[in-house]
Amino acid sequence: MIGRSDILALVPHQGAMCLWDEVLAWDAARIRLRTGSHRAPDHPLRGDGRLRAVHLCEYGAQAMAVHGGLRARAGGGTAPPGLLVALREVRLHLGRIDDLPGPLEGEAEALAETAASQQYAFRVLHQGTVLAEGRAAVMFAPPA
């Protein structure tokens, strides 16, 4: 199993801003993760004591980052820094997530990639029910 300390070594998101706790499975095309971070009272994305479903887009983007980090590590390198530049066809199926009792599971699948960008589809689920889904695009910083 790939745990939180491994995830922290792969992504720029650190401390409480690293939203995923463990990788359940992954291959070259997709990843599946799990977390309980949405229940943390000190979650960095909370506002007015609540964590809204729109923040599931960040969970999706971080699933992409973890996947990219794992793929780069498997190839003997590190993932380049990226910037989330687009969200498309996002569907949120509830209003808030901080009151959900069990862990969240995330899935991301690489759809297209070039040396400069990647596009993924993502889904975040709770107890088998889809909470959010959509597509996200990331642009990479040019090599220095």
Automatic annotation (TrEMBL):
GO MF, one annotated term: transferase activity
Residues of the signal peptide: none
Keywords (A to Z) from UniProt: Transferase
Listed name of the protein: Phosphotransferase
Organism of origin: Luteimonas salinisoli
